[in-house]
C-alpha cells in the first residue's frame, strides 16, 4: 500500500478487531496485517498505549504449557472506536468526493 499508516488508523483497526472478539497478539497482528502493512514490533507499542489509556485490558490463558496474553476491548475502548468510526466515515466521504467525483470542499 502506498498510503501511510498513521497511529490513529492503526489504533482504530486494533480496536475494531477486538470489538469482535478477544484475541492474543499473534492473531491480532495477522488480522491487522491483512489490511495494513505492519510488523509485530509496530503493533505492540500500540497495544501498550491503548492499555495505558484503559481502552484495552489483558488477561492470560494457558496454552500448551505456556501463557498467552489476550487483549480485550473495554467500554472506554468501544467509545474511542465509535469516535474513530465517525471520523473515518467523514474523512472517507471527503476523499471519495475528490477522488471519485472530482468535487472540492467548497462546491
TrEMBL record:
Q: Which InterPro entries match?
A: Metal_resp_DNA-bind_regulator (IPR052509), Tscrpt_reg_PadR_N (IPR005149), WH-like_DNA-bd_sf (IPR036388), WH_DNA-bd_sf (IPR036390)
SUPFAM superfamilies in alphabetical order: Winged helix' DNA-binding domain (SSF46785)
Transcription regulator PadR N-terminal domain: residues covered = 14-83
Name under which the protein is recorded? Helix-turn-helix transcriptional regulator
The record lists the lineage as: Bacteria, Bacillati, Bacillota, Clostridia, Eubacteriales
Amino acid at each position: 500500500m502506498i498510503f501511510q499508516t498513521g497511529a490513529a488508523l492503526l489504533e482504530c483497526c486494533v480496536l475494531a478487531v477486538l470489538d469482535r472478539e478477544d484475541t492474543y497478539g499473534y492473531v491480532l497482528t495477522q488480522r491487522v496485517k491483512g489490511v495494513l502493512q505492519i510488523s509485530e514490533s509496530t503493533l505492540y507499542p500500540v497495544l501498550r498505549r491503548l492499555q495505558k489509556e484503559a481502552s484495552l485490558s489483558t488477561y492470560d490463558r494457558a496454552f500448551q504449557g505456556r501463557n498467552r496474553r489476550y487483549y480485550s476491548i473495554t467500554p472506554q475502548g468501544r467509545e474511542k472506536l465509535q469516535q474513530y468510526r465517525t471520523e473515518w466515515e467523514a474523512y472517507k466521504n471527503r476523499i471519495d468526493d475528490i477522488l471519485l467525483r472530482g468535487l472540492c470542499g467548497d462546491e
